[in-house]
Design goal:
alpha/beta, 5-stranded mixed sheet, about 15% strand
Amino acid sequence: MILLPAAPRLRVPGLRLAAGLCLVLAAQGCASGSSSRVDSDSRIDEAAWAALATPRPTPAAEAPRITVIDGVAAMARWTGLGDEPGFALAELVAAGLLERTDLHFVERRRFGPAARAAQLGESPAADQPPIGSSPAPQWGVTVAFTRAGDAARADLTLTDFATSEVRDAWSFPLPAEADPVGVARVAIRSLADRLAALDDGDAPATWTETPWTESGVEPAAVAYLLRGVRAGDRWDWDAAGRDYRSALSAAQGDFPEAEAALRRAARLRAGGTLAGS
């Protein structure tokens, strides 16, 4: 019987991370930081892929297991990110959770359909990675961003995954110009605080004070990251790797979400499981 995925978190030490990413970003000059020039045709060589395919670390035993639920309708859109702002925000939150050890991210969007197909006896696609197994998530989180005039807010809902019961729902104000990466990061900080409050038995107020920080990540970099996600949905890890590399090049600053996605693509390309990568 296939269990549902328990994804480990990847806290990569700085030197190991730098080594892998320098191989990938050499064309841009790793030592000099990010460049706005993107050569999306350049390929990641096998040595760079191998350096990136480091295992995800085991999350803390007490870390709550979380999956991100997509499909939020009527969200505000961001320029250049198409007609699926809910998908974009969900993927940014997932990428931000991927390498944490205090919050245990459990991948469901790809794993779930693959596991159900296997249970029905259907043959997997030729390039599909192995499914793997892991415990089910405890919590499902949705994140939405809405904008009205010169103000905006984030709305989060926390659902008991086993019962589908909504256990908590809260909001916090944001500037109207809030960027998607910044929204995803502040949502994760807020989520961690709320889960800690639930664990302590507290009942926080509906609105919570969550400091806002603009990410500085260029919109083009987010678009490349989402293109890489879609390539991964086709099991095309080489294309995904090129897009994630382009996202890092276009970011004009730190973009750990793209780094995490690139390493995950490397693990899956190397034969890692959907559950464990």
